[in-house]
Sequence to fold (573 residues):
Amino acid sequence: MAALDQTQVKEGVDQETVDAVREVGTYKYGWDTDIEMEYAPKGVGPDIVRLISEKNEEPEWMTEWRLAAFDRWSQIEEPKWAMVNYPEIDFQDQYYYARPKSMEEKPKSLDEVDPKLLATYEKLGIPLKEQMILAGVDGAEEAPAEGRKVAVDAVFDSVSVGTTFQAELKKAGVIFCSISEAIREHPELVRKYLGSVVPVSDNFYATLNSAVFSDGSFVYVPPGVRCPMELSTYFRINAENTGQFERTLIIADKGSYVSYLEGCTAPQRDTAQLHAAVVEIIVEEDAEVKYSTVQNWFPGDENGKGGIYNFVTKRADCRGDRSKVMWTQVETGSAVTWKYPSCILRGNESQGEFYSIAITNNYQQADTGTKMVHLGKNTKSRIVSKGISAGKAQNTYRGLVSMHPKAKDSRNYTQCDSLLIGDKCGAHTVPYIEVKNNSSRVEHEATTSKVDDDQLFYCRQRGMDEEEAVALVVNGFCKDVLQALPMEFAMEAQQLVAISLEGSVG
Amino acid sequence: MARQSRHRFGRDRVLTALGYALPVLGGVLGVAYVNIRYMDFINPVWAIGGGAILGWIAARTLRRILG
Fold:
């Protein structure tokens, strides 16, 4: 990188080419948008909580809910049990709210939108047609889209910039909007479900999120409706020294189906940034939810400088009988990951699935896994976790399978595989299994292996270089999880796996 | 006479082949079922074996009826 900066660029070579060469082997989304921002004062306290609530034009009950969460947060301590090491976070030395000044009022036409904001979305790969809708252009939602549609809610720092295809989804009865909009427009739904899966006092980061969450997505699928398109949220951190605290609430009513995708990126900076999110999913009788994540936060540089501290609480509550939930995640970014998407299998015959790939390179640390809590009869769960460590990274799988006394005839299958690339990285597995009845069955398989030299030799014989060979082997290792992703994400994830491991061999 | 014998010979060949093809098809369907209904946690040995036996019974029944 430094060598490239010092290299003289020949005459006639355009800037685009220079930028493209510079981007090879580096974090693709590491650039930032130079846009005028509006910040809340630094630090967190009751005044900041009230200010965030005021900025979102929230009702009184919501402000009270946030203040109660803040009160609780100031009494609890940061957990230290995870196998991650990071410098102490100064929670008073960062911004909790940042939004582009141009977003003070929702723009009515494309001309009113800050061109820099539009350019950001173009660079992130969000189609122009959707940009028009993000820009709030009247009638743009009616424009016919070609191919498979994906509705997008774009969250930029602390605000949702816009949500696409809302009108079309509304025709099917589906509500898809930002959580701040949902609090204003659908308070009865938010009040009923918010905090019912992840309570305010659940854990340190969830409590912090409950107090200061700024935006996020809200989905409600009415009974018997199959959501006509995939829904997705794109989280972008842009402002420096600012934390992102988003809240996602998904409600799948009886007999409904929805597939939700989540993507995230952040600029490349020398200082670490905090991201503490909460995702709550409520699945009623015979409903099904698929939640996929491609987490691509900035992981820090090759010396472990910078990156995102990612502390996330995700939980699904399968309340109804025969309800299903499926978590699929590809974790390639963030300097520190602390994340355990969980399923509470409350309804009889409900099912929970968890597929995960966690890739750590350089100095990245990931402590991730899942919790499957079986409460209902004949409940089933399946866990497939693939951890890949390279460089000096540490990767931990931490899982809980709990069979309660009433969960008769329940089943769980866990497969937990770790792959090591190099001799300075680590892979750790911490499974917890609790079975409190004698008719349930729990299976756990775990392997730890290194990339096989014979496989690499075979690939290199066929003209591949070492990095390509490793990427091929790793993609084969992750195949089970990649297959569980929606098609568009599977292709992206496959490329991401290869990019994340660049520079890990040799 | 010769045509009738050829016809019978052809039918015998098909019926004989069914005896092999249907158990194999049953086994393949067993594999497919295990993969599609993976959350049922069915033992593949039972699914393949069961499929093959069902295929064999189907072939035998067909041969009885047609033969």
